[in-house]
Amino acid sequence: MISPADSRALVIGAGLAGAAASVALARRGWRITLIDAASGPAQAASALPVGMLSPHVTRAPTPLSRLSALGVADTRRELARLIPPGAGWGPCEVDNLDHDRGRWPAALVRPGALVNAWLHEAQALGRLDTVWNATVARLQRADSDTSGWRVLDEQGQLLGSAPVVVMASAHGSRELLLSLAPQADPAGWPLRPVKGQMSLGALVGSEWAPRPQRQSGVFVPRYEDSGLPPHWPSTLWAMGSTYVRGADDTVVTEQGHLDNARSLAAMLPKAAEQFQAAMVADQLLGWAGVRCASLDRLPLVGSVPDQVALQAWMQAAGSRRGRLSVSEAPRLPGLYLFTALGSRGLSLAHWCAERLARQIDGAADDTEPDLVRALDPARFAWKLSKRQAS
Predict the structure, then answer these.
(1) Exposed end of the chain (fewer CB within 10 Å): N or C?
(2) Of 57-61, 70-74, 238-242, 382-386, where does mean pLDDT reach its minimum?
(3) How high is the pLDDT of residue 145?
(4) What are residue 301's DSSP bridge partners?
(5) What is the number of other CB atoms lying within 10 angstroms of the CB of residue 14?
């Protein structure tokens, strides 16, 4: 347990996950140092001009649908509390045309507005420091007479140290994890980059649909936001995003636009004609970012396993290994992971951050045990070690 006098944490990554973790810890009295490679917050996947906040609906409940229901309601409360409509978000409905057909309550959100609102709250509490233009290359256990972790840049220079570190740097977290135990099997961290490209443009005239439509991607016929200029039009339409597994570049491509045009044509042929016209007239804008997804499409939220100790633990368990639980896996004290939000960052960031802050703080949590296990960062390494020890 961290003493109140030493409640310091480093958070790596200033997107939705990092900002949510920072404010959740700050509310509990922690002093946060937020570190990011960019010049400011929400510069990577969270720089998306507009995203959709809506539930993930399935015929039978799944961990993702249950998490989504909890998270969407939680994020809506945060939006209503922190951001005026029209200055970063707005309520809407979305027509789902695919497996979860129907019209659902939703919201259109500029993720950067939410990131900044959370960081402003943490700063107003007097508990947030920021370090920009700093690439974290390695984590190192502190000296034996000091608890905690040291965070180093590419030249081996110290960026910060604290008893607690939260890795919230999307797919970049994987290299940091692998560097902690080079001898461990990388399959214990099945994280992959997923590129998404959005096509958009200034809305001139009437909307091309009465409300957002979702099938392969989401079409937003109108989104108005005073925070979009000067980089984007204050009122725009948007189509996206593509979902390219394994791609980790942020180049806006013609192929990405064509993929979005095809997806739109399957939903709204007339709107696709307008899209094509904007493309021919060179009025089409684009944005591309890289998300991080896990093998089972669920986030990794919680204490990082000690993979070397985990392998030895499984070997020593012998025939008892079948009765071992992932919650018993050996951990690296003070090191936490918050990544692989995939396409559900708006839905899951704040709800998961609150759970993570409680875990770090040693507080009670009423989250259902199976959901805790579904999010546990040790789940893949635990299954891998169990197979290897058999």
Answers:
(1) N
(2) 57-61
(3) 44
(4) 338
(5) 28
Angle at the Cα of 125 from the Cα atoms of 120 and 127, rounded to 5 degrees:
90
What number of CA atoms fall less than 13 Å from residue 10's CA on the CB side?
Answer: 24
Q: Where are the beta strands (DSSP E) in the chain?
A: 8-12, 31-35, 51-53, 89-96, 102-109, 128-131, 138-141, 149-152, 158-162, 164-167, 191-202, 213-215, 217-224, 235-240, 244-245, 285-294, 300-305, 331-339
Alpha carbons 21 and 32: distance in angstroms, whole number: 9
Among the listed residues 224, 223, 221, the one whose alpha carbon sits nearest the alpha carbon of residue 208: 221
| Structure token digits, residue 366 | 């009423």
Please answer whether residues 200 and 236 qualify as being in contact, where contact means their C-beta atoms are separated by less than 8 angstroms.
yes
305 preceded by a cis bond (ω within 30 of 0) = no
What's the predicted TM-score (pTM) here? 0.95
Q: Which two tokens stand for residue 273?
A: 């004609």
Q: How far apart are CA 16 and CA 350, in angstroms?
A: 8
